[in-house]
Amino acid sequence: MPELPEVEVLARHLRPLLRGKIIRGVNVRRAKVLAPTSPQKLSRTLRGAKFTGLARRGKYLLFQLNGRIAGERVTLLGHLGMAGRMFLARKNEHLPAHAAVVFDLGGANFIYEDTRYFGRLTLDVSAATRLGPEPLSKGFQPRAFARALKRSRQPVKVKLLDQTLVAGVGNIYASEVLFRARLSPKLAANKLTSGQIKRLWHAIRVVLAEAVRCGSTVPLNFGRGKSDGLFYFGRAPGTPDFYEEQLRVYDREGQPCPNCRRPIKCVTQAARSTYYCPHCQRA
Ligand SMILES: [Zn+2]
Fold first, then answer.
1. How remote is the CA of residue 245 from the centroid of ligand 1, in Å?
2. What is the DSSP string of 130-171?
3. Is this prediction's pTM over 0.85?
4. How far is C-alpha 236 from the geometric centre of its chain's CA atoms?
5. How confident is the model at residue 182 (pLDDT cuts 50, 70, 90)?
6. 6 part of the active site
7. Is the terminal CB of the chain with fewer CB neighbours within 10 Å at N or C?
8. Do residues 245 and 110 lie in contact, with contact meaning Cβ atoms separated by under 8 Å?
């Protein structure tokens, strides 16, 4: 499931490809992903619109367009859900079976494919307004972060998934961040000391920035293979051998901890898997 780093890498890939392109036609094949926007409304709003920019907020993509009417600005919100993909393909290429929305850009199609239809592509941008700070921006302040943690009795791993605390951290990077910060995933958020909070704040930034940097240098096959290779960095089939495994604990149950060589453990918290090293993450 894509989290902040994967979505950021995708945004950087798509931004120059979409800039200046005009939407000539809108083909909605799975209306569910547009909700609450109707296919008619999407088509009416976007036909003739021009892509001007693409931003990322948390795990959301925000496509900016100039509408057909002079001065009209439109924002389209995208979310990849569990297994969504967004890519450009030549017009003469067959559409994938699970293409949910296809924009005709003249020479190419911009395709949103989603085998499970948990993602979104909609004119309703309200979801992106309810997010906490961007972890890699100046708006992510240690003091406000500490105050928010103090208000929660949830285990810190579960609290990290709360998108109002900090935007873009999901199940994979929550485990990775706690390993980096040497904190037990079971610690109650409001019991963290100020030193532990500082370590956590720092680990969030370092782990996410590293993953973005790493993803930006890996040859990914956007839209051209069975997978984009965007998820589980370093483990995508066909990834070159020189590419080093980046995830240190996630999905590595029973494998040796990179620090102490003792086995990584997996526990379930709030119905999601948490991976950690019980020896290195005792605090
Ligand atoms: Zn360890």
1. 17
2. S----TTSTT--HHHHHHHHHT--SBHHHHHT-TTTSTT--H
3. yes
4. 17
5. very high
6. no
7. C
8. no
